[in-house]
Design a protein that fits this description.
mainly alpha, two-stranded antiparallel sheet, globular, transmembrane, 4 strands, endosome, EmrE-like, ion transport, disordered C terminus, Mg_trans_NIPA
Length: about 350
Amino acid sequence: MTSHSWRDAYSGMSTDNIKGLVLALSSSLFIGSSFIIKKKGLKKAGVSGIRAGSGGYSYLYEPLWWVGMITMVVGEVANFAAYAFAPAILVTPLGALSIIISAVLAHIILREKLHIFGVLGCALCVVGSTTIVLHAPQERAIESVAEVWDLATEPAFVLYGVLVLVAVFILVVHYIPLYGQTHVMCYIGVCSLVGSLSVMSVKGLGIALKLTFSGTNQLVYPQTWAFTFFVLLCVITQMNYLNKALDTFNTAVVSPIYYVMFTSLTILASVIMFKDWDGQDATQIITELCGFVTILSGTFLLHKTKDMVDGTVRLPKHMDEEGGICHEGIPLRRHDSTNMRSP
């Protein structure tokens, strides 16, 4: 009897969810690789021109940066398609797998040490991702892009959108000019807030294209083009501030904070707009949250132990740029001997 009730509660993954899962895994592979390639391109560009963190765009002339960008675009296209088939609660947390790929490639290409606890962090990410995959809600049945637009214009999501835009405006106008070079949360905050809106727009556009390819033309609806405009605007904003964050701060700092903030805000936006949890009971929701927390734990463990060697933490010395005093600790910012500058 208990076994029968368990089977009733868990009906398995739908075909659309499986398609979304495969696309999300492919996306993580490409995006994880792109972080390392773009990082090397930014470092090369910074040697001969103004760095992105200082407002420069010399990286646009660096071929290696473009290779990383193309790799990221391929990953984002796969991610884009994944949102058309599966709910954001399933797709977004799987971005943690890109951090695992990034850590492994950083160990091989950038010579960054991957400690045994880093391996444990990778394992936790895999366990958490598996938990979410097995308990994720089914994709909502939508017949028209107009239905997605109706969800996006409901009072609850409109309020969320307004709050996000106000927060981004305050960060860009007030906090970034003052603290952008010293506080990683300024750049990452903009990326994550705008990112949560971009995912909702991507999902709307993805559903429109999926229905169009299935024979129900959605290109005649103005809502499809409105979603397209929001996607382009949000992605350009994200890329701009993510480049600044990567060029100003260490990858070990940017990656986990960006993942946590972006994923948390995206899940919140999806729950508000698509009401993903309406068809689930408390047990399923709590299990998904536990899986998400497991991923967060693995992500932080992975990056916190990147400077550990043989059980001890390697604390590189870095200079206090105001007083010229040398301290020991893991620096948040990059410190290149060939390109020192004051904040």
